[in-house]
Amino acid sequence: MTPATDRVTTRRSVLLHLRPGRRSALALAVSVAAATALPLLAPPITARFVDDAIAGAGTRHLALIALGYLALAVAGQVARMFTGWLASRLAWDGTNRLRETLAEHALGLDMAYHGRHTPGEMIERVDGDVVAVAEFVVAFLLDVVAGVLLLAGVTVIVFTVDPRIGGFLLVYCVLIGFGMARAQRLAVPSAARGRAAGAALFGDLEERLAGMEDIRANGAGEHAVHRLYQASSAWYWANYRSGRIGVGLLAGTWVAFAAGTAIALGLAAWAQRSGAITVGTAVLLFQYTLMVRAPFERLIDQLRQYQAALAGITRIGGLLAERRTLPAPAVPRPLPDTGPLGLSLDGVGFAYPDDGEQVLSHVTISLAPGETLGLVGRTGSGKTSIARLVLRLYDPTEGAVRVGGVDLRDADPVSVRRRICAVTQDVQIFAAGVRDNLTLFRPPPDDRLLRAVLEDVGLGDWLAALPDGLDTVLGGVAGSGVSGSGVSAGEAQLLAFARAFLADPGLVVMDEASSRLDPATERRIEQSVDRLLTGRTGVLIAHRLSSLSRVDKIAVIDGGRVVEYGRREDLVADPGSRFARMLSMAGVSR
Ligand SMILES: Nc1ncnc2c1ncn2[C@@H]1O[C@H](COP(=O)(O)OP(=O)(O)OP(=O)(O)O)[C@@H](O)[C@H]1O
Ligand SMILES: [Mg+2]
């Protein structure tokens, strides 16, 4: 497929979501036709009124005509309002379907994709672009379709009344239409730039807000404000340019319309003088000439929305065309359902998809079910990357990761999430009740179990101090400065352990928090680690070597390679081993 047909098919797939049902479409067509036809009937009534008045008709007769005119005007307005209501309902129904598909699709994309796109950008895509499309669909039906129909109707009627004036009106409409089509080409790129600048601004803003604590603590406020200034001024100028083009177009049409109206009025007066038409018909022609103005103005207005919507549809199509880089297995194999799971990494090599730099090479590690492994190494050596492969957030570029004897690439994703659990460096606390924070929004087990688990991890006193117990709403992100209901970094870690206990996995991956915790919390965490690893296979990434006193095996990672690997007791017993040297350097007893 060429890129052009590609774009057409993605646009079509987006538009398919918006298609209304057959009956709604029919109702819409009828109401658009009524909203267009009713106003067309008004000028003949005025013409009749003028001619009859000149001919000396009675007041009663004239009043009846006037009432007829009024009824027509009201009916026209009602038809227009109904069309507006129906169009927006159908457009929102359609775009909600689209939003659902998009949100689901975006949530299914891999970490690699989300690493490249900020949350703000995703929100702009799933919400901002979809809204632009919805607004355009409504406006398209109301202003563009109804406008074009009205123009056609006016031209036909004027033609039948006086072909010379009809001819003039036709030429005039074609000229204005042609001029607007040219102007549209000017407006296209500038509108797209405006929207892209907006998305960049929101992406930036989101990142700064999430990193508020770091920014404040490190005095990077000035830099952050300066970046905000740059992004907003880029947005301002992009919008200013597209706005200026829009205003220019509008001014141009005003002049063109004034000239056109004057000429039409002159022609009508001349035709009436020469006796070809009555005064009423001259008024009728004048009214029709005025009627073409409104649809043209609305069409111009729509040019900009059309650009935004088209750009939005293209970007939405782009997001929908984004494929997962972690392919789903053809025949998913479930991991063993109960008990600890063995883990093996065979000659694993890995590079993050976005930069392609080799982060891990030839990593070979194996754990029997129930065994525990401590991963140690300098910062940036690749420990967290190993953890991510074990959690299948990424696939290795070489070798294989097997859990419970199943290559993770062939494993059923649902059982992977159920049987492998992570306790990571940054714990996300959701703005929700304690219950939901523990079960991550799955149906909660009974409260006694929840309380017991919290007690076990050492959060019993914390729970007792909460105003509404398990119903207390926690909030914000630990460490982000967004205030929650009293969750410290240490408590967040303990909550993460409670989550893991409740999930009851067969393999636990722990990436120890490097933040400093008070000794009491540290001790509680160590106890929790011990208990969590009892009867489970575990991979423990530790910054404090003291936390590794009970693991079975140790792997020392350096520059993405395993530089030392063995049973902990053997490594400790060998004074020449790296691990033994690390222990004595850190002053940790063996
Ligand atoms: N999402 C990512 N995209 C690209 N490169 C990454 C990503 N995450 C980590 N890296 C790079 O991969 C290498 C290993 O990082 P990793 O986070 O695995 O180290 P680590 O041993 O866990 O470090 P730390 O002890 O500081 O947690 C580093 O060079 C890092 O810059
Ligand atoms: Mg790490």
Automatic annotation (TrEMBL):
It is found in: Cell membrane. GO terms for cellular component: plasma membrane. It comes from the Bacteria. The keyword Transcription regulation does not apply. Signal peptide: none annotated. Keywords: ATP-binding, Helicase, Hydrolase, Membrane, Nucleotide-binding, Transmembrane, Transmembrane helix. Pfam families: ABC_membrane (PF00664), ABC_tran (PF00005). Residues 26-308 form the ABC transmembrane type-1 domain. Residues 343-584 form the ABC transporter domain. PROSITE patterns: ABC_TM1F, ABC_TRANSPORTER_1, ABC_TRANSPORTER_2. InterPro entries: AAA+_ATPase, ABC1_TM_dom, ABC1_TM_sf, ABC_transporter-like_ATP-bd, ABC_transporter-like_CS, P-loop_NTPase, Type_1_exporter. Its main location: membrane. The chain crosses the membrane at residues 25-42, 62-82, 130-159, 165-183, 247-270, 276-296. It is a multi-pass membrane protein. One of its GO terms (molecular function) is ATP hydrolysis activity. This is Helicase. The lineage of its organism: Bacteria, Bacillati, Actinomycetota, Actinomycetes, Streptosporangiales.
